[in-house]
Design brief:
mainly alpha, two-stranded antiparallel ribbon, 1% strand, globular, disordered C terminus
Length: 333
């Protein structure tokens, strides 16, 4: 059943660019590309969140990824292929810099969340301060490679190329999530999330496990930042490195269900669709309404559906499934 659904979803996504849409094709592809990029970023966050490592500073890794490739291309002409490697390396170093002391000295729970929140704000303020390089709060535009598409610069006039590129990255993120979910490290990480002291007492390397999953999450988030910068061709500290973007990532993962493979994807699709719907319907008349609705929905989901949409749907499906034969025979007797 799951394989059939997965095959149908991949077929629909693969055929989407060729579905007749009239004059709406470019706009629909634009929305789908954004959904796939933010789904990758939400999936990267859920790698940590599902094990109790709640980060409120993933905007820092996102901003590092986006700004690194943009700066290397604009000032030194290094292609994004090289810039992506540098972005991932910087994000990993940043994750180690914040993760190792926190994990080594048992900074957990809301204290860890506050530490990551501070990290995101530091990166945002640093980007604003270095305005001669980054453009400050005004942002920075990616230097065009020329009038034609360029594979080296990862700049394409046809949105379908971007679409299939980010679709591949999204599938890569799902593959990493599945590998972690089925890997030998999952029981250790779950034990750490339940009780670090008990996990350490049975020989689980707590610091190494937590640092490993943090580094992996940061690297995937940086890749998402690179993809976003290449597609939008514009980077801004408020939309890539601040608390707002970090909360947006958290909200999408929690809304869809951080414990489900497609949970962050469902959450990202709903949040982006809601933002686009409000923008088209009301324009500039209700600025900030999307964020207000996000907050209200987050409160409701935390209270009534803590497992998210996918998690809640999975539990409902299990309850409606066929009852075991033993239980049926017991009731009849």
């Amino acid at each position: 059943m799951r394989r059939t659904v997965a095959l149908g979803l991949l077929t629909a996504l693969g055929a989407a660019p060729w579905v007749p849409m009239g004059g709406m094709r470019q706009y629909v592809l634009h929305v789908l590309i954004q959904i796939l990029i933010w789904s990758l970023i939400g999936t990267a966050w859920s790698l940590m969140g599902r094990f109790g490592l709640v980060s409120l500073g993933h905007g820092a890794f996102l901003g590092v990824g986006a700004y690194t490739t943009t700066l290397l291309w604009n000032f030194w002409g290094l292609p994004p292929w090289i810039g992506c490697l540098a972005a991932v390396a910087f994000a990993v170093l940043l994750a180690v810099a914040i993760g190792y002391p926190c994990f080594r000295f048992r900074v957990v729970g809301h204290y860890f969340a506050l530490a990551t929140l501070a990290l995101g704000e530091v990166i945002r303020l640093l980007i604003i301060a270095e305005r001669s390089w980054t453009g400050g709060s005004l942002g920075l535009t990616l230097r065009p490679a020329g009038p034609a598409s360029s594979l080296i610069a990862l700049q394409f006039r046809d949105k379908r190329v971007f679409y299939f590129g980010v679709l591949t990255l999204w599938l890569l993120g799902l593959a990493v999530w599945t590998r972690v979910d089925r890997g030998v490290a999952r029981p250790a990480l779950e034990a750490i999330g339940e009780d670090e002291t008990a996990a350490a007492s049975v020989g689980i390397p707590v610091t190494r496990c937590k640092l490993g999953i943090t580094v992996l999450s940061a690297a995937l988030t940086a890749v998402g930042g690179v993809a976003y910068a290449q597609y939008i061709s514009y980077v801004n500290p408020e939309t890539l490195a601040g608390i707002d973007v970090s909360l947006r990532i958290v909200f999408a993962a929690v809304l869809g269900g951080m414990f489900s493979l497609l949970g962050p994807t469902v959450g990202s699709a709903l949040t982006i669709s809601l933002a686009e719907l409000l923008r088209v319907a009301f324009g500039l008349r209700l600025i900030g309404m999307a964020e207000t609705i996000y907050g209200l929905l987050l409160i409701l989901f935390i209270i009534f559906l803590p497992a998210g949409i996918c998690g809640g749907a999975g539990r409902a499906f299990e309850r409606r499934g066929p009852r075991p034969a033993a239980a049926t025979a017991t009731r009849r007797s």
